[in-house]
Amino acid sequence: MFESIAPAPADAILGLTAAFQKDPSPTKVNLGVGVYKDAAGTTPILASVKTAEGRILESAKTKSYMPIGGDPAYGKLVQDMILGEGHEAITAGRVRTAHTPGGTGALRVGADFLKKFFPNATVWISKPTWANHRGIFQAAGFKVEEYPYYDPKTKGLDFPAMRTALGQIKAGDIVLLHVCCHNPTGVDLDQAQWKEVAALGGRQGWIPFLDFAYQGLGDSVEADRQGLLAMAATCPEMLVSSSFSKNFGLYQDRTGALSLFARDAKQAEACFSNLEIVVRVNYSNPAAHGGLIVTTILSDPALKAQWRGELDAMRNRIASVRAELVRALQQSGIAQDFSFIERQKGMFSFSGLSDAQVQFLREKKAVYVVGGGRINVAGITPKNIGYLCASIREALG
Ligand code: LMR
Questions:
Q1: If one looks up domain 65-299 in CATH, what number appears?
Q2: pTM of the predicted protein model
Q3: Extended beta strands in 18-114, E state
Q4: Which of 3.90.550.10, 3.40.190.10, 3.90.1150.10, 2.40.30.70 would CATH assign to domain 14-45+303-396?
Q5: Residue 382, preceding bond cis, omega within 30 degrees?
Q6: Could you read off the pLDDT of 232-289 as tens digits, one per residue?
Q7: Whose CA is nearest to atom 4 of ligand 1?
């Protein structure tokens, strides 16, 4: 029976955290998992979140079950956040939102829903993409293929190749796109490129699945949604996964959402009832706490303003660390040009380090970087940047 089961490999990202925690090195640096850290290297609970939690604790009267799709008030606030208040899809009632366990849960609920109705579809993911995307869609039973995205030569987007590939994907296939802060590269589409992709989506008839895990960590809550708005304008049917792990710091509260867009309110209602079945047979209904925090913050103007300030501070720190890293790498005597790090958006930077260099950094320097060379810029602090740059210099040889 079970004795024939071989151990599974460690997770490409969360497995690094486990290895990092066991590492006895006093100078170890964790640039693996995408968790925000402040300049002191800690991941504090946001003050707005603390206040919201206090209020929730005070006013809570029951621990009874949540609705299968979560609290409708939460769903509405999520829609306002991803689309902007008053968007036509909201007023027409043709977008419906389920509260899910994080962005990963949203992706899996969406994948299971799509598999039920489009069993023969292929799911197209960017090359490269977040390590878990392929796993989630394969676990739902889909065939997964890649479309070109990143050009290692320019350290930027290979838009011509991407456009050509997306223009050949057939109706009914599913195309996964990162709305902002592409994970792992930090390379995003500009507004003109989004318009082209949106036009292709409308023309080809594929189903966009937009992963929106980093809203507010690119340029701002509003600017980061521009790609989504472009897609919504041409593709009436699509799915959007949201995560509040990073922008609210609710990592361990597993707080996310899946928004389903249909052509009209009646179709949205029919689809949502099927989403509810997917949820019911997976985890029945969502854990309330994280959703209550988001609802409390977004429905109170003062608390919302405070949260916005805290989000701005996180984003600004990441931007300044990018600049600092480029400067420190230069000063450590590395000839290679790393200025592209400042052009990338969000928490991650695709450093250009090879797998052998990543392995050297981990084994010889206790510097933890995700395979493929993704570094979490937010993990860099004034205390570890010198050691980090010296280690990278050694790795580059
Ligand atoms: C990451 O990419 O590091 C985060 O999204 C965390 C995760 O679940 O992998």
A1: 3.40.640.10
A2: 0.96
A3: 29-30, 95-101
A4: 3.90.1150.10
A5: no
A6: 999 999 999 999 999 999 999 999 999 999 999 999 999 999 999 999 999 999 999 9
A7: 34
